[in-house]
Design goal:
The protein has 914 residues and is an alpha/beta fold. It is built from 36 helices and 33 strands. Helix content is 41%, strand content 17%.
Length: 914
């Protein structure tokens, strides 16, 4: 036992190393149970702030993915106080021994003295370092990663070694100086001088540049510095020496004076070409003349305009794009041959008159490759529309040019109009509403149906993400009637949905498309394996209905069929890509994949990847690629550029309309949402403060996965306490009058619901907790003689369907529903009041629940009441949700995990304001 009663944990690691030196690590505990990769990462990255202690680590079902330096850092410095690591097998133990040895060797101050380059390979002084072959290999990988991460090349290592031996790896030492040491290059005074000046300057915290007075130019650094900086003289001298060691353009005699060296034009060229990239790679500041700095950023421009030869309605998607290229340097047009010469000569710095221009040779090479691909006719209108050509050639937004000033892309107006038509889903080829459809489609529903058929014709998956209640079901049924009327369609279509709406699908298809043959694959007596194949062959169903749970269990049975189409209803069910359910569904085979959801993103962008990996596999590449390109820039850095790129990439695959869209002409009644604020009782406040203090103490002892779990558990307990102290204390129910006295919120909910019923209206009451639902039900029954049904996840499907029909028929005025069981798939337009007894930290879940009443068919004003306890996490979460609304608008719907809050934000969330 460790202090405070925490058990020591031991993990046996299985280590797989690929050819490039990266690792995949999985683990089992002392009982032989597999460890969740996210939990394992929190222990491996215990002391790694850069990886946010494991939160930014890449994990999947195989394990935790690390590069060599990440793995070495696990065994560097402070070790985890509660965890130890061993190898699952002897080779794993050997690997761990080598990693620990590598960590110790790298920490030695004289390590680089024992490193040499020999015939392009790194060699170590084996006698001095006493390394095993395994450890040498690991150190080689670690050095290679460091070189590549800094933007350098391996062949540059011999030139770096003298510096590394004297100063160590740049950037690894931490400085506490209140200033920075920089080099400054000053151009010559044309009238009096022909030489440039390279000098050391000290940059203050305010950004001002300091150099020694002329009379102190030859003085020691300590004597030349002003009094306020003299204590830092040694550090300044050390930093200057470190930077001087990188200079190749000029020779500098060692000394303890501030650098002030004249430079000729040839030396300046070498400095810019060779020294400057090294300084930039390692983060050493270099101050250039303003005009030189600006031209080093962007003087070469390429413009291209795309067009096609003809347009033939939908067939135009296969038209090859033709490109017209134009080039300019410093505002002067240059021809294509001159551009090609720049590329062939691998030019980087070009002088035009009295000016120098910097051009990235790698960028030039990339543009040449793109030109060759484009001019060879590799790209079509279809590639352009679905973002399957390099992003340099894709306009990020129809109304904006790319932020990259080096490449501007435009489309001829005729091509732009054509792409706009398809991208915006207006004016698509008319698929013809099926004659067997027993319903009249609204105009926007016809557009959605045409779009689904169009996407099928061109083998693109589709995500129909209309708001709840806008008729995703009828649009899909129309699509199914279309494809199953075709003689070439032999295989059935598969619809996967939550169990709670399985009956809805049966009834809707029977009502609107009675000609479709439907088979329900669900329940203990369902056909499996050969029996399933025989059933499909004999009955020839058009549609097979099943549930997420059933498909997960029967993935092998269903995996043997190539379905005409596979549709996921409430597709957010596969948002967690690592679950067995999500993996099983993404392995199914279909000619066309469709996702139906009102919330394509509920919490994180990883959910968007999971849905798109189902509807159009491989579109976003691997999850690791998607993380690097979009998740990190958007969720961590809030990058507007990457948001625009992501919107551009998902837009062709995503059709989303909202109830607030005036173009839909829905004529829905208005909806008013308001918070109902309730104070805590004295009893609740005392329990609240006590529980918070106890939890804060526990949080300080945990990190990673355990801390995250405790936060979630704590939030749930606090919300139960906000509802009623009896729920928090797990007490049996007392008489209703006594229970009301202990919670203002319960009292308000019961009295409001009773008033609504007395006025002849109907209401829905949503709660996350079974105990709260039972308590509300008891109080309404005892005090107001109202018998209120409670729909929870344990209620049988037949009883659920009966209660929904009875409520819609007005047979009872109040309906209590658990948030998860009743939040999706139900039509409850009989209600014109919605009461949220407790707040969920994901607004998409609350909105789904509200949309049980606020949907097509609703003719009354809908009043939504959200109960919030003052001064508690409920009020603070409500404010946070308001602040996150901007991101929700930017990328469909999104919110941030509360478990990822910073310590400061978490402290604010846990503070109690009476």
């Amino acid at each position: 036992m460790t202090k405070k009663g925490t058990l020591n944990l031991h993990f046996d690691l299985s280590i797989n190393r690929n050819a490039l030196g990266s690792y995949t690590v999985s683990a089992t505990d002392s009982s032989g149970r597999s460890i969740d990769p996210e939990r394992l990462s929190s222990f491996l990255f215990f002391n790694n702030e850069q990886a946010m202690y494991g939160l930014l680590a890449t994990t999947d079902e195989k394990g935790v993915h690390l590069n060599t330096n990440d793995f070495i850092q696990v065994f560097s410095g402070k070790t985890h106080p509660f965890a130890t690591f061993g190898g699952s097998a002897s080779e794993d133990e050997d690997h761990l021994t080598a990693l620990r040895e590598a960590a110790n060797v790298l920490s030695e101050t004289d390590f680089w003295h024992h490193v040499e380059m020999d015939a392009g390979k790194i060699r170590f002084d084996e006698d001095k370092l006493n390394l095993s072959v395994f450890t040498s290999m690991i150190l080689h990988d670690a050095i290679r990663e460091k070189i590549e991460a800094s933007g350098m090349r391996m062949e540059q290592l011999p030139a770096l070694l003298p510096h590394l031996r004297e100063f160590g790896w740049p950037g690894e030492s931490v400085s506490n100086m209140p200033m920075r040491v920089a080099f400054r290059l000053t151009e010559p005074d044309a009238e009096t001088d022909t030489e440039w000046l390279l000098e050391t300057v000290v940059v203050s915290e305010r950004g001002t540049h300091w150099t020694p007075a002329v009379r102190k130019m030859n003085a020691d650094i300590a004597d030349a510095l002003p009094a306020k900086w003299k204590d830092y003289a040694d550090e300044i001298s050390e930093k200057q020496s470190e930077m001087v060691s990188f200079l190749r353009s000029i020779e500098v005699e060692p000394g303890n004076r501030f650098l002030s060296m004249p430079m000729s034009d040839p030396e300046v060229r070498i400095f810019i070409q060779e020294d400057l990239p090294v300084f930039q790679s390692f983060g050493f500041p270099v101050i250039l003349p303003a005009w030189l700095k600006s031209v080093t950023e962007s003087k070469m421009r390429v413009r291209t305009s795309a067009s096609v030869q003809s347009y033939r309605a939908a067939a135009g998607l296969d038209e090859v794009l033709s490109f017209d290229w134009n080039f300019s340097l410093a505002g002067k047009e240059i021809d294509k041959d001159s551009f090609q010469k720049l590329v062939d000569e691998n030019r980087e710095y070009i002088r035009s008159g009295d000016e120098w221009f910097h051009i990235d040779p790698l960028w030039l090479k990339r543009i040449r490759e793109l030109m060759e691909q484009a001019d060879s006719g590799e790209w079509t209108v279809k590639d352009l529309l679905f973002q399957e050509i390099p992003e340099e050639i894709i306009p990020i937004d129809d109304d904006e040019e790319s932020d990259d000033p080096l490449l501007a892309f435009s489309m001829k107006q005729s091509l732009r109009d054509y792409v706009d038509m398809i991208s915006n889903k207006h004016g698509l080829p008319d698929a013809g509403v099926p004659a067997n459809l027993k319903a009249e489609l609204r105009p926007y529903q016809i557009e959605g149906y045409n779009w689904l058929v169009f996407m099928r014709e061109y083998n693109f998956g589709a995500c129909l993400a209309d708001d709840m209640g806008l008729g995703k079901t009828i649009q899909l049924i129309s699509y199914l009637l279309n494809i199953h009327a075709r003689p070439e369609t032999v295989a059935p279509s598969l619809i996967i949905c939550p169990t709670s709406v399985l009956g809805n699908w049966q009834k809707e298809i029977e009502r609107f498309a009675p000609t479709l043959v439907v088979h329900t694959h669900y329940g203990p007596s369902r056909a499996k394996d050969e029996e399933f194949e025989k059933l499909v062959a004999e009955r020839k169903p058009d549609v097979i209905l099943s549930t997420y749970g059933t498909v997960t269990q029967d993935d092998e049975t269903l995996g043997g069929t190539v379905f005409a189409s596979i549709t996921l209803d409430e597709a957010q069910n596969i948002k967690n890509m690592q679950t067995k359910q999500s993996r099983a569904i993404r392995k199914l085979h279909g000619d066309h994949q469709i996702a139906l959801t009102g919330t394509p993103i509920e919490n994180r962008l990883s959910e968007l990847w999971a849905i798109f990996d189902f509807i159009h596999k491989g579109y976003f590449g691997s999850f690791r690629t998607f993380t690097d390109q979009f998740i990190i820039p958007i969720e961590r850095d809030d990058s507007e550029l990457e948001k625009r790129k992501l919107r551009a990439k998902i837009r062709p695959f995503l059709l989303r309309r909202t109830k607030n869209d005036p173009d839909l002409q829905l004529n829905l009644p208005k909806k008013l949402e308001q918070n109902e604020y309730c104070p805590l009782t004295t009893e609740q406040a005392a329990l609240y403060e006590s529980f918070i203090e106890d939890t804060k103490f526990k949080l300080d002892t945990l990190t990673g996965f355990e801390r995250k779990g405790l936060i979630l558990k704590m939030l749930s307990r606090l919300k139960q306490l906000c509802n009623h102290p009896g729920l928090f204390l797990k007490e049996p129910h007392a008489p209703a009058a006594q229970m009301l006295e202990r919670s203002v919120k319960l009292n308000r909910i019961v009295s409001m619901a009773a008033d609504i019923a007395a006025n002849g209206e109907q209401c829905l009451i949503f709660t996350q907790y079974i105990g709260m639902g039972q308590l509300i039900r008891q109080c309404l029954s005892e005090l107001h003689d109202i018998d209120v049904p409670f729909l929870s996840g344990s209620m049988p499907k037949g009883q659920r369907d009966h209660l929904v029909e009875a409520f819609q028929a007005g047979e009872f005025p109040i309906f209590i529903l658990s948030l998860k069981a009743g939040g999706t798939g139900l039509n409850l337009t009989g209600a014109n009041h919605v009461l949220h007894a407790d707040r969920w930290w994901n607004p998409a879940v609350e909105n789904q629940a509200t949309d049980r009443a606020y949907r097509i068919g609703q003719t009354k004003f809908v009043h939504v009441h959200k109960f919030v306890t003052v001064g508690t996490i409920e009020e603070k979460i409500d404010k946070m949700l308001t602040e996150k609304a901007a991101l929700s608008a930017d990328l469909i719907q999104s919110s941030q995990w509360l478990t990822e809050l910073s310590d400061t934000e978490l402290d604010d969330l846990l503070s109690f304001e009476r």
